[in-house]
Specification:
By secondary structure, the protein is mainly α. The chain contains 5 helices and 2 strands, in the order H-E-H-H-H-H-E. It has a two-stranded antiparallel sheet with strand order 1-2.
């Protein structure tokens, strides 16, 4: 006389579906190389305090406004992207877009201003090197 317990795995299809959603969401950001930038020729010097040639650009020193924007993204990434990953690629792209906007706003707020042209020129790239 055989005595035993029957085991059945339930919910495996649902678990696989969730893992596929997470994989698709992560893939949505694969290959992105976003930057916070300005196309103005003097932006580099204002950020680092010196031009690429080494000549002094700001007596008051570097402002590192681009770095401040990137640091804001790094600080907020887990809170924004963590919940979005479980919702799929569209949610991740939306969260990433929000992060980039936040980084740009932070960089703009830290940029030195005389006329406002530098602040207004700061933007993010499209993320795929185009």
């Amino acid at each position: 006389m055989d005595v035993g317990f029957g085991l059945a795995v339930r919910g495996l299809d649902e678990a696989i579906e969730h893992l596929q959603t997470v994989g698709d969401a992560v893939q949505a950001l694969a290959g992105r190389k976003d930057t916070i930038r300005s196309d103005l020729p003097y932006a580099y010097g204002q950020n680092y305090g010196r031009y690429r040639t080494g000549r002094l650009a700001r007596r008051s020193g570097p402002t590192f406004y681009f770095e401040a924007g990137v640091q804001e993204i790094e600080r907020s990434a887990a809170d924004q992207l963590g919940p979005a990953i479980w919702k799929g690629p569209a949610a991740v792209r939306s969260a990433w877009s929000t992060l980039l906007k936040r980084g740009v706003k932070t960089a703009q707020s830290r940029a030195p201003r005389k006329s406002g042209d530098l602040r207004d020129s700061i933007h993010s790239s499209d993320g795929f090197g185009r």
